[in-house]
Amino acid sequence: MTNNYYCYILTNKNRTVLYVGYTENIRQRIEQHEKGKGSVFTKKYNVFDLIHLEKFELKKEAKSRERQLKNWHREWKLELIKVTNPSLKTLEIK
Fold it and tell me: Quick one: fold of 5-84?
């Protein structure tokens, strides 16, 4: 069985805050964030809307991408997101 790993970006309803994370189970991780169990930051700033998702086969790739994106300026992150999600709509997990 092949595991997948994800690097993701969440935002709040006003799209003013961005949060970057990585996980093996994206559904479960989003639920944790929504229940306030994901991270102190997401709970404090109500950052629950998934607006960007990248899939990886290796955990180290997802972690590396997370580190990279966390070091990016906000404008760079928004440019990346808008390539696949120009209106910053909340993505549904299939």
Answer: GIY-YIG endonuclease (3.40.1440)
